[in-house]
């Protein structure tokens, strides 16, 4: 998603998508800290519902990418860039509706929560994955939006759209299959 929004809207939209994604990561860290992750683990109907919603959203984004006429390249030629709200929506949705991220926080991250007994420790538990995720994807957006890289990527925007569409649909199928 960061690649698609960097191509469609430039560095700024890629960074918005990156930090929206990190907010979703931060929400999972907070949910784990508050103990709600354990509740979700013990309520498979709610967990499966979130996973199915996530799979449907991934499939919808994949279909949108496959159906795009000429990919981002055509949008750019027509003067249509991705907007900030769409970049933010896609960034946060891709993290919130990803059951694999939820499982990561349930299985691994919850162990760190147990040792955080102070407010400062708990804040660090939530902020660390949020900031690391945001910085990582910001770096990706910065690298991809470099003046020597972006034109080459834009030439291949149609192919990138199609490939990302296939990957998103395959991820959606995998989510449903692993339920």
UniProtKB/TrEMBL annotation:
Organism: Shewanella decolorationis S12
Membrane-topology descriptor: Multi-pass membrane protein
Transmembrane residue ranges: 16-39, 45-66, 101-119, 125-145, 157-177
Keyword Membrane: yes
Designated name of the protein: Lysine exporter protein LysE/YggA
Name of the gene: lysE-8
Keywords from the named record: Cell membrane, Membrane, Transmembrane, Transmembrane helix
Cellular compartments annotated: Cell membrane
Top-level taxon in the UniProt lineage: Bacteria
Pfam families for this protein: LysE
